[in-house]
Amino acid sequence: MWFELAYVAGITNGLNAVADGLRLPLDFSVSGRQPLARLVDEATAAPEVSAVFAEIRDFYAVERPPAVFRYVARDPGFLRDYWTATREAFSDRTLDRLTKEVLALAASLTARSDYGVDLHLREARRLGLTEAGLTEAVEVVQCFNTVTKIADALRLQPDFDPRATARPGPA
After folding, report:
1. Does residue 86 contact residue 66 with C-beta atoms inside 8 Å?
2. How many CB atoms lie within 10 A of CB 112?
3. Is 38 left (phi over 0), alpha (psi -120 to 50) or beta?
């Protein structure tokens, strides 16, 4: 379970970094963001790219792949590998896909990733996240981010971490 959590967090961070860094929109009609780099056009994509795009469309139940994958498709080998890693991270295993999407949403909220919030909230809702579930997830994110910010500001050392120094209280 912990590996799955870490894998989802890592993949989410990578997708968000590329998408937000290049100002990629999840959907042009919704965000109005203009990408800073060219996206691969599905109509003119190489056959191996089109095949991966079809898998992505099926996985996310969308008409076209999210922009982050259309950017990554500039390198067909990387697209195949990164899509494989993404699909594996979000597939049902010990944790189900909805749980993983909610975790990715929480990571995206914490990172202030517009792209990640849009993508993972859409997916979580599609997979059955209720408004009450969304509220609960947001409350948990807010609570942990608040506690973490306070602890960081006070430079508190964890008292439950056996790897921490023996120094109690603020650093």
Report:
1. no
2. 10
3. beta
Q: Tell me if residue 64 falls in helix, strand or coil.
A: coil
Return the residue matching tokens 């948990």: 140
Band (pLDDT 50/70/90 cuts) for residue 111 is: very high
From residue 65, how far is each of 5, 53, 167 by CA, in Å? 24, 6, 50
Give the DSSP letter of residue 23.
T
Strand ranges for the chain from DSSP E? none
Cα gap 128→126, rounded to integer Å? 6
Task: Give the Cα separation of 51 and 83 in Å (integer).
Answer: 11
CA distance 4 to 100: 8
Are the beta carbons of 33 and 21 closer than 8 angstroms?
no
Q: Which residues contact 150 (CB under 8 A, 6 or more apart)?
A: none
Exposed, middle or buried: residue 156 (CB in 10 Å: 0-12, 13-18, 19+)? middle
Predicted pLDDT at 170: 54
Which pTM does this prediction carry? 0.84
Cβ(137)–Cβ(122) under 8 Å?
Answer: no
Q: So where are the chain's domains?
A: 2-94
